[in-house]
Amino acid sequence: MPSNRQPEILPPQKSRFQKANGLFADENLDLLSHILDDWFRIPGTSIRFGLDGIIGLVPGLGDILGGLASTIIVLAAWVRGVPYITLLRMVVNIGIEVVLGTVPLLGDIFDIAWKANRRNYALITRHLQQSRRQTWRDWVFLMVIAVTLTAIFLAPIFLILWFLEWLGHHA
């Protein structure tokens, strides 16, 4: 007995690399990074800054709040399937901005110039469009950061050892 039933054809499942809907959609992430990093312009100049730069003027707490707002973009990248090395690079971008942003005045100027949120949005779009290609840039960036941090942490130790040796020769 033949059946009049037709097979059900399901739409293809969305790849995690395709555009997301809702809160983590490209348009929303672009807008968030724009608001945080370059929403305002100083009249007569090409200097742009966002809420992150304004919030960062509040000593201590401002940079932490700005960093927390920046993590929304990292969370969206993780949900959308960005490779872990890129997520790590995004976290380092935010860390650099938060740590250096704590320096009074110079940190705020750096924060306005660094634009971690725009950098992180560009990393998301690059990796979602090119699907895990060009990650060598991420590794080089992280290696430079690791070498720099190692040098920063080892420099005081070498200076103390050098000073102790100098004292030993002049005592």
Structural class: mainly alpha
Q: Averaging pLDDT over every residue, what do you get?
A: 81
Distance between the termini: 107 Å
Which band does the percent of strand residues land in?
A: under 5%
Count the strands?
A: 2
Number of domains: 2
Q: Helix amount, in percent?
A: 55-70%
Number of contiguous helices: 7
Characterize the main sheet: 2 strands, antiparallel
Query: Which strand order spans the largest sheet, edge to edge or round the barrel?
Result: 1-2
Task: Indicate the topology.
Blueprint: H1 26-37, E1 40-41, E2 48-49, H2 51-55, H3 61-79, H4 84-101, H5 106-114, H6 116-130, H7 136-170
Antiparallel strand pairs: 1-2
Notes on the protein architecture:
This protein has about 170 residues and is an all-alpha fold. The protein folds into 2 domains: about 20-130; about 135-170. Helices cover about 65% and strands about 0% of the residues. It is built from 7 helices and 2 strands; from the N terminus they run αββαααααα. It has helices spanning about 25-35, 50-55, 60-80, 85-100, 105-115, 115-130, 135-170, and strands spanning about 40, 50. A two-stranded antiparallel sheet has the order 1-2. α1 (about 25-35) runs antiparallel to α3 and α4 runs antiparallel to α5 (about 105-115). The longest helix has about 35 residues, at about 135-170. The chain is flat, with a radius of gyration of 23 Å. It starts with about 25 loop residues before the first helix and ends with a helix. The model has no long low-confidence stretch (mean pLDDT about 80).
